[in-house]
Amino acid sequence: PHVLPEKNTSLVGSSLVGPHVLPEKNTSRESVETAPPFSITRRLALGLKLCSWPGRTQVIHKDNLLYFLDGAHTLESMALCSQWFSAATRGSAVKRVLLFNSTGDRQSSELLSPLLDCDFHFVLFCPNIVTPEVSLAS
């Protein structure tokens, strides 16, 4: 068996702890006990190594454009997204465009606040409008 690499602990940890923490929306991270390290099989280690999570700190190269994608949807994940994007684009002279979408009852102004330091040149807001009709106007 292999010891679980540090970077993958969140994948296994969230699947183990998530169902128990989710019902308690006011549970702080500090109040959740840290589980002791455990061994995993070679097969699970390979699965974690090969795991791909598109839309999380994903960079797509297309022609002369770079797309930085992250599906952050909490204040904490937005802060991490902001740090990742800032580090990845530090020193770059290219135009930065933010395409922002939020679903559910999330507070967009709160979610956007960590992105203020990213120095975007343009910001586009993409609403959640779904219609059964497809036309040139839609």
TrEMBL record:
Stretches that traverse the bilayer: none
UniProt region (Disordered), positions on chain: 1-33
Keywords associated with the record: ATP-binding, Ligase, Nucleotide-binding
GO molecular function, one term: ATP binding
InterPro entries, sorted: Folylpolyglutamate_synth, Mur_ligase_C_dom_sf
GO cellular component: a single term: cytosol
Biased composition (Basic and acidic residues): 22-32
Keyword Metal-binding appears in the UniProt entry: no
PANTHER family for this protein: FOLYLPOLYGLUTAMATE SYNTHASE, MITOCHONDRIAL (PTHR11136:SF5), FOLYLPOLYGLUTAMATE SYNTHASE-RELATED (PTHR11136)
Name listed for the protein in its UniProt record: Folylpolyglutamate synthase
Organism field: Timema douglasi
